[in-house]
């Protein structure tokens, strides 16, 4: 396994993935993308270069786990898309984060504002 050997058994939720893998899933929640577009999004988020040796093994692992589907755009370019299970993993991570962050009405209002501003 790449990045972290954290996937065990049949558990395939965001809770078993590395933060880097969860970030890939989050990026793919917007739309299907090819590898270099994912790389650019990650570099923008991290503010540093993400090398191919980190990105593609993690994408391959997410494909193997059934969270991402890989298809060929042309002979040189692959496209990656969230599966339904991948989307559920993203929602699972959001739900868990919210369960820890939203501890009172004020925080709930802050989250509502963030959601409203997001779209």
Structural features, described:
With 119 residues, this protein is mainly α. Helix content is 56%, strand content 10%. A hairpin with a 5-residue loop joins strand 2 and strand 3. The protein is elongated, with a radius of gyration of 15 Å.
In short:
This protein has 119 residues and is mainly alpha-helical. It has helices spanning 19-28, 35-46, 52-64, 84-101, 105-118; strands at 33-34, 68-72, 78-82. A hairpin with a 5-residue loop joins strand 2 (68-72) and strand 3.
Compile the SSE list and pairings.
Blueprint: H1 19-28, E1 33-34, H2 35-46, H3 52-64, E2 68-72, E3 78-82, H4 84-101, H5 105-118
Antiparallel strand pairs: 1-3, 2-3
Largest sheet: 3 strands, antiparallel
Shape from CA axes? Answer: elongated
SSE pattern, N- to C-terminal: HEHHEEHH
Q: Kindly report the spatial arrangement of strands forming the biggest sheet.
A: 1-3-2
Span between termini: 36 Å
Q: What's the total count of β strands? A: 3
Please name the defining characteristics of this protein:
single chain; 119 residues; mainly alpha; 3-stranded antiparallel sheet; 5 helices; 56% helix; 10% strand; disordered N terminus
